[in-house]
Design goal:
The structure is a homodimer of 566-residue chains. Chain A is mainly α. In chain A, helix 4 packs antiparallel against helix 14 and helix 6 packs antiparallel against helix 14. The first copy, chain A, is built from 25 helices and eight strands.
């Protein structure tokens, strides 16, 4: 039994029930819309909103994360499956279940192996670029539903040119209902909460109520289209028949060729879903001093995806907007999620007929409004001001996603951010230092009036030493020796060296030997404990015995010729 | 005119001439053997040993690097081209020239863009694993020539099983001559230099003479096979007709589909060749206090490869053994290389007939002996003792090369070493510190008797803050706050933080905000200059204004409640 259930307090019940209800009202249009985005029949979105919520409640570590279908993962599902099968076909739906199964299995395996740190390979600029690129791709993709035309294509340019070509076929009634919904939702987002507050509704409640606008749009538009018979008379595309009844449990194991096709998208879905989920969960948990355990999140999301696969769903993860509403509406425990699951089960068991006249254009409008809030141009501006390399990896990821698709884009982003990391560390800050007269402090000779010891080069390297910069340090020492042929001692100050990897160790070992053949002594100072522990047992450590000093001061005292200075 | 030529001194001439001659004697059998290894006709190896040497002499920065065909690059050439064309065919030879052209073009482009640092992406463990894996692959591949059988295959296991299957077809006379050469070369390597020294030859001269054993084996075996007519009577495979005359200059530009096939192998050949070259050149330059300029090496090796492509050759780079001999034999300037080139031109213009009866088995034996000296098992043992992650990336690269081939192996190695880098930095050393009584020193509370300030958490992080560890630091602070709910101030000591990337900046910004909402103050101390310069203009830097302290002591003084301590 999960801890939250064992220690459940009566006082939490009202909050959990309210939040569960409100999240359900958000979840109904979203699950239908995201299934459409993923290229799946509407009921698949509903299926993915029942068992996964219960599974996460049993194993996840967040008290307020709302799991279910989300926009970005739905896009990733579509982009993985559209080259493999016809959207809407039974084969496509089976592959979507298998994608959830593989993805869930990977999350469980990572959790069992405690590999939560894998997610850290995705830096914020990469994630931010990925989300923004995906959001733009999604929004542009949905424009065809607003226009009532077909405009297939995978990249942004392809989609846009298909849209332009299809413009003459615009379905005017569909465009009217789509634009009206879009306008209403955008207005609701910016004006509804302030209006409610002015009408006396408390701030938090107003914010939550404003999130229910999509449901209002769904109800009103469905009623208009249904009563007017606009699906038949005006050709407005609607959701149509949604099979009633709870999902059948079944297990469709992928065979080896399918596994080979799906493992990479499944891995990326698992990682992106996990990172998104954990960052939402963490920001909410911090507000209540709760704790998110990444390895438990892996298990929670893993079983949620396996549960989705078993019950006819598709990949799920923790959603940003729904989790925030869940939190704000007073959820205290995952019981809120269980309540949502029960209500969704009720809907699918009895009320699917209500969705018959729901227009696709309205769902598309809710998707567009939801994803445009994910577009974060400011993140690029901030990154550019702070760190160009990070800004470029953000931009590269976003452009990569838009031009090449989600998989190639995110892989390019990871490569860019690792490249940026190595590049930055490959040009470490180094300073030749001397003693501030009369003190035990040592500063850059270029910036301060300091004393140096003739024949001694004291070089401070402000970076860990590893394969990308060891040679740079070696080169710098070589340069200094050429500039001053009288140098007989080289002191490397390691106060900022947190690690020395095997490559740097080899470079230093060789440097020491080649200096020794020229009668020049290498010395180290301020080597950190963990670095020293490793160095001790190496050949270099043994050769340097007696020439590794605790402080630069000690090294200077040793280096100072005992004869009176000339 | 290169600087070495402008400032040439007569005193260097004798050394350059001797070294040029001795290197030529090594180069003749090696160029024939490595062409065979690369799947090319023997003259291609000779062609690659003329113009490239002159081109490098004009632009390279090393005084003693001996450029030309080398074992590992020959293997990479074979593995790139064998899937695309029949070895020995004209098409194959054209592709080899194009490979050299693309590779040379890339080196020139990297040089022009000053991208010498790109080579640092290959860590020593990856290079070491790559060289060892390649050497084993090469040695096993040559066994078929010693046995006189055909045993094709790309991976080690494939080659070995083909060898086993072909064992019954062993050509006994070939095996005898191959084994005899192998035994002689191995003996020469271990015993010749000591014997010569005992006979009164100086150490350095003896070492150089021992390197000429392969030429001796070539001369003797060619004479025996030639006079005995063993190629006809005993079926020993020989080099046969080698076209006489200098190479024709020609330019075979690759078309777009060819470029698509060759760019990745060309890039890897460029990088591996560059890294190998620079590391040899650097170790030799250090002994004479000369300087290697990586960006000039890119240009030198780039034109050498373009020259090789223009004159019917294939990819070249600086060779380890030949460069060491060149240095030891007294080369002072690249004139030694020009001398070698002239002598090679003489050989190909007049004496190619002498190679007719040279047995393949003898060339194979020289290759095997040359590459077994590259196998470095001890590097793994050393890496394992020092750093498991580095040792695993070495092993992964070696196994990858042997099982999957050179390209996949080296890419796996790069991924492993980047992974190791991120993984290591993702678990930074952190310590809660307090004041050593009566001093301004601050130490780990777990290891020393120190004073702390009630309500203040002082945490030192011994690592740069970046995407892979920012969340770990945030989690640690969260843990400490849960353990001691009375904490009201969090001090982050940044003395070992050399960088803060955009991800870590965001995490810290969010941390500061969420702490602030709980009435907890975030402070920083000992922020380094370059980090501070960037931080200042950020939202976090502005919010922290007045709470960033030069020293931990200042921060403790600020944090100390002014009321008398309870």
């Amino acid at each position: 039994m999960p801890a939250w259930l064992r220690d459940y307090r009566r006082a939490w019940l009202a909050g959990d029930l309210t939040a569960g209800l409100i999240v359900t009202v958000m979840l109904i249009p979203q699950s239908l819309a995201y299934a459409m985005l993923a290229g799946l029949p509407p009921q698949v979105g509903l299926y993915a909103s029942i068992l996964p919520l219960v599974a996460y409640a049993a194993l996840g570590s967040s008290m307020t994360l709302a799991v279910g279908p989300v926009a970005v993962v739905s896009l990733m599902t579509a982009s993985a499956l559209q080259p493999l099968a016809q959207s809407g076909s039974a084969e496509y739906a089976t592959m979507a279940m298998q994608l959830a199964l593989i993805s869930g299995g990977m999350l469980l395996a990572f959790g069992a192996l405690r590999l939560g740190f894998l997610a850290y390979f995705l830096s914020h600029p990469v994630i931010s670029g990925f989300i923004t690129g995906s959001a733009i791709l999604i929004a542009i993709g949905q424009l065809s539903h607003i226009l009532g035309v077909r405009a297939p294509g995978s990249g942004v340019l392809e989609k846009l040119s298909a849209l332009l070509a299809a413009l003459p076929q615009t379905q005017w009634p569909t465009l009217v209902i789509g634009m009206a919904t879009l306008a209403f939702l955008l207005l609701a987002r910016s004006a509804m909460a302030p209006l409610l507050v002015r009408a006396g509704v408390p701030d938090a409640t107003a914010a939550v109520l404003a999130k229910l606008a999509p449901m209002l749009a769904v109800v009103v538009s469905t009623a208009i289209v249904g009563y007017g018979g606009l699906d038949r008379t005006a050709g407005i595309a609607v959701v149509g028949e949604v099979p009633r009844g709870l999902p059948q449990l079944s297990l469709a194991l992928p065979d080896a060729p399918m596994l080979e096709l799906l493992w990479l998208p499944a891995l990326l879905i698992a990682l992106v879903g996990f990172v998104e989920s954990v960052s939402v969960a963490q920001s909410l948990a911090l507000k209540r001093q709760q704790r998110i355990v990444p390895n438990r999140e892996l298990l929670g999301l893993g079983v949620a995806n396996v549960a989705s696969a078993l019950s006819g769903g598709y990949p799920v993860t923790g959603g940003f907007a729904r989790s925030v509403v869940n939190f704000a509406a007073g959820a205290h425990t995952p019981l809120a999620g269980v309540v949502s699951a029960a209500l969704m089960a009720l809907v699918i068991a009895a009320f699917t007929g209500l969705f018959f006249h729901l227009p696709h254009a309205v769902l598309a409008a809710t998707i567009i409004v939801a994803v445009t809030s994910l577009i974060d141009v400011d993140a690029f501006r901030r990154a550019w001001r702070y760190d160009r390399a990070d800004a470029l990896s953000l931009l590269g990821t976003a452009l990569g996603v838009m031009a090449l698709g989600v998989e190639a884009g995110i892989l390019a982003g990871v490569a860019l951010s690792l490249g940026a990391l190595v590049w930055r560390s490959s040009r470490p800050h180094m300073a030749v230092v001397g003693r501030v007269p009369g003190t035990e402090h040592f500063r850059n000779v270029l910036r301060h009036k300091v004393e140096t010891v003739p024949g001694l080069l004291a070089l401070r390297v402000d970076e860990s030493l590893f394969f990308a910069n060891a040679t740079v340090v070696e080169d710098r020492i070589g340069d200094e020796l050429r500039l001053d042929p009288a140098l007989r001692q080289v002191l490397l100050i390691c106060s900022a060296v947190n690690q020395i990897d095997a490559t740097a160790l080899e470079v230093l070992t060789e440097l020491e030997r080649s200096l020794a053949t020229r009668g020049i002594v290498l010395m180290l100072a301020e080597v950190k404990g963990p670095v020293m522990d490793r160095l001790r047992s190496t050949a270099l450590g043994q050769r340097l015995d007696g020439r590794i000093f605790l402080s630069v001061h000690d090294a200077f005292t040793y280096a100072q010729p005992s004869a009176p200075p000339s």
